[in-house]
Amino acid sequence: MKILTASTSISYAKILPGLCAIVLGLTVVLGLGFLQDSNNYLHNAAHDGRHSAAFPCH
Amino acid sequence: MADFRKLVAISLMAGLLGRLLLSVLQHYQTLPLILAAEQFETPSTEHVHDWQPIDGWQRNGFTLLFNGLTGFGFALLISASMYWRDQRGYLYGLGWGLAGFLVFFVAPSLGLPPELPGSDRAELHSRQAWWLFTAAATAIGLFGLILAKQRWLQIVGASLLALPHLIGAPHPEVAQTLAPEALQQHFVVLTSINNGIFWLALGAIAGRLMRKVTFA
Description:
The complex is a heterodimer of chains A (about 60) and B (about 220).
Chain A: H1 12-34, H2 41-52
Chain B: H1 2-28, H2 30-38, H3 57-84, H4 90-111, E1 119-120, H5 124-147, H6 151-167, E2 176-177, H7 181-210
Antiparallel strand pairs in B: 1-2
Helix pairs in contact in B: 1-3, 1-7, 2-7, 3-4, 3-7, 4-5, 4-7, 5-6
């Protein structure tokens, strides 16, 4: 039987899959948006995307 | 971890679809402005030997790749949030999309507007730090304001929303932009509209796809 309650709690089994998705998502977004490499390869490749997404670029 | 794989699959589809839409808008609207602004930049001798993508398909290809991957990343955040709260459907998705737009675009842009190349801004690391702090404070603040039941948590949430703007974004003592002001303003308006469309579309698509899968 499923009990419906208006709670904000998350069942234990759901914590890990959701957390993995959040960590992967933040890693991808922040890595591409913010990393500056010494050769500027990543910066130059991501340049137009960063400007268009309003990430600080230069 | 079967649920995690499902979240990844949903995010791949939603992220790529949403970013494809954004990339088309960008290609005709904001990228020409970036190229126009670069005409005002004097080539810096310091970076002349650095590799950079050749203008044309190569440069656009990297932008497409950047868009696709970040779209995937943003979609993961939305689908995981809906997963945790047992939400399905495009209406919930639109709500999360709006939240994402506020956290990752509107709030940081209030202090650091989208900039064209050639803008002389404050030191990069301080701007990146303020941007990240603002996004985090806005995310936690929105969570407290909207989802918390207790009054004191709502007050803390509202204060967190305001805090980065009370501190203020880092700005140089003398700001100067090489591109004309009209071009810069045009860029701010277009990126705001495009990113808004992207976030709402991303949320709606992710929300709709959440209906297609059954979680453990």
